Amino acid sequence: MRGFSVYLYDELQIDYMINMKNSGFDRVFTSLHIPEYDLASSWQVFQQLIALCKDLKLQLMVDVSREIMEKLPMSADELSDLGVRGLRLDDGFSIMEIAQYCKRFQVALNASTITVDMVRELQDLKVNFSHIEAWHNYYPRRNTGLDAFFLLNQNTFLHEVHVKVVAFVMGDQQLRGPMYEGLPTLEKHRNSAVFANALELINRYSVDEIMIGDPSISRKAMRQFESYYSEKVMMLTVAFNGDYVPITHCVFTSRPEIARDVIRLQESRSLFYNHQFTGTVCERKIGDITINSQELLRYSGEINLVKQHIPLDAFVLKIGRIIEEDIPLLSLCEGQQKIILTEVTEWI
After folding, report:
1. By three-state DSSP, how is residue 77 classified?
2. Do 264 and 254 touch, CB atoms closer than 8 A?
3. What is the phi/psi pair of residue 307, to 5°?
4. Backbone torsion region of residue 60, taken as left when φ is above 0, otherwise alpha when ψ lies between -120 and 50, otherwise beta
5. Bridge partners of residue 2, in order along the sequence
6. Residue 144 domain boundaries
7. 251 plus 189 within the same structural domain
8. Which residues touch 323 (CB under 8 Å, ≥6 apart)?
9. Boundaries of each 6-phospho-N-acetylmuramidase C-terminal domain copy (predicted)?
10. pLDDT digits (tens, 9 = 90+) for 289-346
11. How close are the terminal C-alpha atoms of the chain, in Å?
């Protein structure tokens, strides 16, 4: 599952929600206890959000505190009947209260504060652990996001006790105030690419599900998620040095054996053997796209995506470059990964 955030201080962006649903997102996160906004002014928008999530078949998770639950104009059971599928419980709820909410809701607890003792107490109460998730916070203020080593260690523990882990990445369009510095879980992900950060959380930090923290992401990021999860294709945005239309119309596959310095696109030799490409002979930098010239005989036409700095080779031509925000995806590319190169002009 993948989710995105919708906040209650403005009109609902219905078109955006539909686009996210069509891009493969199936969950919505919202909060009823953001300090800058009061419950009374948010309640009508909240009810509209519940109805829209039901119509779009999106699972709605709501961030609540004990104080907010006491102020709600309806009971928890009525919330469930209305269509709220999950509660993200702020710190302060008792173990007994958590166990009770698990009977009606998917319950998200603070992933950083779950302990062995808490797990044992919930087990003693015969709680169904398929109804419990561990959600890491997002961190609106710069320099306060989590350390990567801490995140991995905590997630390792959470998986040992069979709890699903969820974490946030920041958006790349409208950022949420009042800080407007992004809403990531990991500090290292602040001000960097949405899709690459999401994939890194899953592939390297044992996160099971990602949520977009900020109110919106770009059309390009939506398409990357859709391509990867629906079509199993990693989409890389590139800028070519000339007219390389045939290359952008191909879905390539990385070779099953992973090279240290480059990603080798295995169909490229048969497709472009003996083709005349113009390019530059130069030192190859991380993110460069190269093709082997005819002088390399049976290796002619092979396209490589450069992962490490490499000295120049007289028979290797640089023909383009992956845009900076997509370069982190190179280190996350595994063997036999489907890849498509999309020109940057498509997103302008």
Report:
1. helix
2. yes
3. -105, -20
4. beta
5. 210
6. 2-231
7. no
8. 237, 238, 239, 344
9. 249-339
10. 999 998 989 999 999 999 999 999 999 999 999 999 999 999 999 999 999 999 987 7
11. 29
Is 252 found in the same domain as 131?
A: no
CA 247 to chain centre: 27
Q: Percentage of the chain surpassing pLDDT 70?
A: 99
Give the phi and the psi of residue 100 in degrees, each rounded to 5.
-65, -45
8 A C-beta contact, residue 187 and residue 145: yes
Extract the tokens encoding 64.
């609540």
- Token pair 């994939």: residue: 199
Instruction: Among 231, 253, 270, give the residue marking a domain's end.
Output: 231
> pTM of the prediction?
0.95
222, 243: one domain? no
Cis check: omega of the bond before 311, within 30 degrees of 0 = no
Query: Residues 82, 62: contact at Cβ < 8 Å?
Result: no
14, amino acid identity: I
Domain count, the chain: 2
Q: Spell out the per-residue pLDDT of the chain, length 348, in tens.
A: 799 999 998 889 999 999 999 999 999 999 998 877 778 888 999 999 999 999 999 999 999 999 999 999 999 999 999 999 999 999 889 999 999 999 999 999 999 999 999 999 999 999 999 999 999 999 999 999 999 999 999 999 999 999 999 999 999 999 999 999 999 999 999 999 999 999 999 999 999 999 999 999 999 999 999 999 999 999 999 999 877 777 887 999 999 999 999 999 999 999 988 778 889 999 999 999 999 998 989 999 999 999 999 999 999 999 999 999 999 999 999 999 999 999 987 765
Q: How many CB atoms lie within 10 A of CB 229?
A: 13
Decide if 188 contacts 148 (C-beta within 8 A).
yes
Residue 88: count other Cβ atoms within 10 Å of its Cβ.
24
Q: Residues 212, 16: contact at Cβ < 8 Å? A: no
